[in-house]
Design brief:
about 220 residues; alpha/beta; Nucleotidyltransferase, domain 5; five-stranded mixed β-sheet; disordered C terminus
């Protein structure tokens, strides 16, 4: 398998490729409002570095939200185009799960509360643990709520994401890294797990995980 992973759901833009021999190729840049230009370039760069052609891609994973509405749709549209062109399955993965995986990969902590700023005094948040394959595993549900409605429990070891705004980060004793962002390299781990669980979807049937019902809709090709 050659798995391509892309994410543009926050101010970070990234692409990564897991080649069938296990080698990983990766591009990442924090570049607000530049994703439309950067993402195709990054995909070309990881393909060239890996000597994998587009026709050799077996799966395409993408961060499908929650996050910045425009950013989510950029990755979803790219993934959908690849899926349709190559007739390969897509792997839509939660942005919050990707962020949790980034946190686990970098800090080694298991139970993590990840939070992204949703504006309007709200945040997207969820608690993730670690499964037997060292992948982020959702505990409970992903939520959109006011900052003062976030549920902090005693099992949480670490906090990550720019949703840890004033009023929330001061209320906890565990460490918080507000600078961590989703990254396609960590997305590859979740994509591999999804493949093993046969969770690939047809490119014509993907949904975006906005967490805001009023804007929930399917991307159009």
């Amino acid at each position: 398998m050659n798995i391509l992973a892309i994410d543009t759901s926050t101010e970070a833009c990234s692409a990564a490729l897991l080649r069938e021999d296990g080698a990983v190729f990766h591009e990442f840049e924090v570049a607000p409002r530049q994703h439309t230009r950067l993402l195709p370039e990054m995909m070309d760069q990881v393909l060239q570095a890996s000597a994998v052609t587009k026709s050799m891609i077996s799966h395409c994973a993408f961060g499908n939200g929650p996050g910045a509405f425009t950013g989510i749709r950029i990755a979803a549209a790219q993934a959908q185009g690849i899926g349709l062109a190559l007739n390969i399955p897509l792997l839509p993965i939660s942005t919050l799960a990707i962020l949790a995986q980034v946190c686990m990969d970098r800090t080694g902590h298991a139970n993590t509360l990840v939070a992204l700023d949703a504006r309007m005094h709200e945040i997207y948040w969820a608690v993730y643990g670690r499964d037997s394959s060292n992948c982020a595993e959702l505990i409970g549900t992903e939520q959109l709520s006011l900052v003062n409605r976030v549920e902090i429990n005693a099992t949480i070891e670490f906090g990550a994401g720019h949703g840890w705004v004033e009023g929330l980060r001061e209320s906890v004793s565990f460490p918080v890294d507000e600078g961590l962002l989703p990254d396609a390299r960590s997305l590859l781990k979740l994509a591999s797990k999804a493949i093993n669980q046969n969770l690939g979807v047809d490119a014509r049937r993907i949904n975006i995980n906005y967490l805001r019902n009023k804007v929930a809709e399917k991307p159009r090709s």
